[in-house]
Amino acid sequence: MLFSGETPDRVAATESVCKALLERYGVVFRELTVRESFPLKWRELLQVFRRMEDRGEVRGGRFVDGFLGEQFGLAVAVESLRALRNAASPGEAVTISASDPLNLAGIIIPGGRVPALSK
Length: 119
Description:
The chain is mainly alpha-helical. It is built from 4 helices and 3 strands; from the N terminus they run αβααββα.
């Protein structure tokens, strides 16, 4: 089913973007899309994510604390987050390379931004 104003090409392109975001992050929510440069609004992505959830391709819910709104994740990412939550020790430090796409410090995580390149 297409919403008013949607074309099959636009829906297919939006679905490709949604799949790319899921492959990149595992779990996608609005704050993550703010740093992307594609010309799609969260509302368009949300409609496609909901369709993907209805087809059983992704899971919808609240997987990452501290962020409002709907979140969508690949089954493997959701299970990994649950396993990490159950196995993690409080206060355990996790190190991520500054050039890693998951380096979201200063972007969606409070604090100063860590540059990908050193000066």
